[in-house]
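Notes from the pairing session

We agreed to fold both candidates in a single pass and log them together. This is the raw record for the first candidate, unedited. Please don't reformat it; downstream parsing expects exactly this layout.

Candidate A
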Amino acid sequence: MTPLRRRMLEDMSVRNYAKRTQESYTLYVQKFAQHFGKSPELLGPEEIRLYQIYLTRERKVAFSTLNCVVAALRFLYGVTLRASWPIATIPYARKEKRLPVVLSPEEVSRFFHAIASLKHRAVLAIAYGAGLRVSELTALRATDIDSKRRVIRVRSGKGHKDRYVMLSPRLLELIRAYWRAEHPKGGFLFPGGVAGQPLDATSIQRFCQRAARASGLKKRITPHTLRHCFATHLLEAGTDLRTIQVLMGHSSLATTAVYLHVSNKASGETTSPLDRLESFPGLASRS
């Protein structure tokens, strides 16, 4: 490990950055240095600009990936190297405003019927029934399931925040069935193949994709899709936005507000002015 890499990791550790964030940032910095064949200490704003152009035009990376690279370089030059030039000159990519894919309740049911494994069904049912992120699913321990209070404790979610989410009777029944059948050991609710380690995020993504294919649904379904469905279906059932924000673990209500745009309460249940016309050419008149 180079001294610069060690310093950057130390700087992130003292600021309590998540382990995955530390790994991502150091990887992006490493790729940046490899692209020019030089230490980042010998590079500056012009090389960063050229690298962003390369990632955009040649690699055609997603804006989210480009912004992760920017965040990593801003940390490196702003915190670890304390560059003399203004860090704000490293621009973030303009975020594309895309709405999340959401399944109807009928499609969610069809998806779960396509999952043969009880363990896999339990994992993804928590994603939908409690709105957990993949990283939160992997970290779940048996002791986080509070059947008496009917809540699930989410430890160190995004932003290192703990929260409690709902534990529905049906979800509790499924978790108990999984527990009786699997008898998981090692403390984690969903242990992985390595002793003492939880099921990893890649495995969850993989069996979610298999279930999506088996269901025959044409929409792209990921574990995060199920989290979007959780929020949207709560909103459509009349749950207020502030409650959904707390359950989702969003720091800003503006983040939760995106579900107003995908909910059918506004778009699907409102009568179009076209349908209010007494008659329309080519269509039968209202009786």
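Candidate B (folded immediately after A)
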Amino acid sequence: MYFEVRGSKTYAATGGKEFDSSLPTVMFVHGSGLDHRSWALQTRWFAYHGYSVLAPDLPGHSLSKGDALESIEDMGAWLAEFIRASGAGKVHAVGHSQGFLDVLELANQAPDLLKSITGIGTAGAIPVNPALIEAAKSSAGAAAEMLLLWGFGPDAQYGISAVPGMQPIAIGRQIMARNPLYADLVACGAYQNGSAVAKTIDVPAQLILARKDRLTPVKAGMAFAEELGARVTIIERYGHMLPIEAPRQTLQILRELIGALESSR
């Protein structure tokens, strides 16, 4: 469905069900160069099990209009405006990679909009190789090739997919090549506010990390989890693209935390 945010048409996937602001809402925020399709399994499950779902395409990405945002701080502010435009009230915010940095800034700027936060394949800061940024400046497709080579674990590189008949690396390449990957990577690499924000967060937090992650190594995620006071779950064998590579495992962990929080209300 579409919302108007900052005067631009913004698309958000709702998991195949009509959005209902009276239900507890889970918001999913995609990583660099990606879009709502990162969350296909997770959004559908929550939408059909008593939740409302919002998985927006950030401005300038896929089905959303507007210019790409140039900083994580502005992405956090935009998310707050998006939530208010949707009428959702407080949300459980889930972010993958750069998407979690956006969620951190949302927590920093509008903590009243959050019930919990979950980071997947992430840390409090995500350094970006200058060669990758330079490649993205010249060609999003070439940079996507590099990013996906490092972003998926060994099984995916051999063509093993969680969805028979679909090749996630090829799908990821197609999405990233058409999105503002350069702007995302520059914003991601420049963000240094994670540790300061972690000290202010007072909602339940968890990190879901991948043992084979070569973009945001487990060590960095674990260190940030200590700063955040977050529960940590490590998924073995998989790489950085957990929502796509290991969708069922990722979903199960999300179900446990968010379900426990909602059942205790």
